[in-house]
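pipeline/complex-builder :: batch 7 item 3
reading input block
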Amino acid sequence: MYRTGKRSQIMSEAGYTPPSATATASPIAELRGVTKRFGEVLAADDLNLSIRAGEFLSFLGPSGCGKTTALRMLAGFETPTSGEVRLDGAVVNTLEPYRRPVNMVFQHYALFPHLTVAQNIGYGLRQRRPKPPRAEIDRKVRSALEIVRLDGFEGRRIWEMSGGQQQRVALARAIVNEPKLLLLDEPMAALDRKLRKEMQIELQNIQRRLGITFILVTHDQEEALSMSDRICIMRDGRIVQTGAPRELYDQPRNRYVAGFVGTSNFFDGAVTGLDGGTARVAIRDGIVLAGRALAPVAAGQAVSVSIRPEQIRLVRAATGGETGWPVSILNRIFLGEHTEYLVKHESLGEFMVLTPRQAELSDGPFNAGEQLTAVWDAGSALVLDKD
Amino acid sequence: MRIYAAFVYLFLYIPIGVIALFSFNAGRHASQLQGFSVQWYGKALKNPFVMDALQTSLTVALVSATCASVFGTMAAVALQGMKGPVRVGFDLLIYVAVMIPGIVIGIATLIGLVTLFDQLNPALAAIWPGGAPPQLSMGYGSLIAAHTLFTMALVIIIIRARLAGMDRALAEASSDLYATPMGTFRQVTLPLIFPAVLAGFLLSFTFSFDDFIIAFFVAGSETTLPIYVFSSIRRGVTPEINAIGTMVLAASLVLLITSQVLLRTGRRRG
């Protein structure tokens, strides 16, 4: 699936700087060599991660990649088989969930059906010993309801609320306790697309306003990209790469990351030559692509050359200085601001090109069957580990 | 198919209907209807033997249903948290306990307890510090114990079904919100399974109150209402017995329907 929305979102984060003052402070939570086995299944494999105070971090990966297991170990529902889970510097591997200053928003909210909205939200406060006075609980519950914009819903029953409202209650129930970590387990999965967008923006606002560290588990790259300060990409129980969304997009560690964060065209081949940071990769039929190697590669190594669709241009005739690849257009999809073309090169095969509307005003749009030339800067092609 | 079903229901319910009908008999014979009267109800309620038996039955039913509900809830919650073969084993034993015929439970409890008492009574007498040592014997204790054993299995099954339908994340959420395991049980699990607990209690009460077979073996010198009815039938059936039977039937029906309603509403609120 190819979506256009995410690109503009990635760019829109430009004005915002993640909390940098905390970069030097000690991490609020840490995973050190954390491994979790369920019988034969290795759910988490040697996870290493430092979580900074006040950041919005996402675990991103397909289902079964171990992201939920990582979250549940932070919450205390699972005990690591080996390694250390640290909260505020202290090892908490076997500390019970009810002793951790950590709260979770569950996937299906897990609101208590026999309690009202206010009783649900005040639940965590009522467990404190000594028990806070009733007036204080009421005040905090009211302010939490205000934060999630549900003022006046105190006396409602859970089943009288819509899915979006229930989610807000679940969020309020967690933030009212002012936890060190707020864990969100695919909180948006049950919401429809429009509501999800709204909640994403709202979650971000709440997180920045309260300064609580948010840890989100999601399989939705768009969600992770648009909301997070940092993303931790997982696969088969391992962390593949951790970094800011832009960093993951521009400097993916391997083909998996490039494919998971945004969309890319991949051309598989073997390294034939190296020239500084540039590698030459033989694809097939004697075609050689050049690209930047972000990590050291050796001659003969099997790699993928990754080129983002928006970094390819289609022209009727190549101008000098660039290598052009003759292609024919197979399909065109109009997406408003952009037009997406599926093109085919004799040896490279089919690949995707994304053309901004601006570029098409002078040259194009092109029709299916047209013979054109695809060009790109050598610098925009990345040579990536195939794995 | 429908006509067979109609016959089945007729065979099942006509005798019960006849019993209820004859309880309003004005005459003194249970086979001949001689006009409408409620005099037998008055007679039954004034009969000291009936009231005595009723009191025994109510006491046994109340205590055993309470024990069964408390222990059954504890067992069900514990079993829910268990995994693997141990749980499967326990589940199997519980279903077996429900299916074992009452007469087997009665005989087994009788033989087991009598043997135990034969061993314990001399031992107690030997270590008793002074005065007359207590004599363990069949009676209230054995009745309550036998009924609790049998009805506890029912309670466990009912509550397990309810727990299985409960979102596991609720208990986790409670724990995540700083509630201790005891706090979670008190504030989340118990309120949510309470309709099932109450239904189990009512069902246990009904089973214990109506039970004749087990009680017959383990009652010792006590007389429960069903035992009284059985023994008075040997002296000839009067409409008084019908009146007792009809009252027991009505009370049981009310309890059973209440328990079913509880289970249903509990499920809907889920």
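note: The two ends of chain A are 21 Å apart (CA to CA).
queue -> next item
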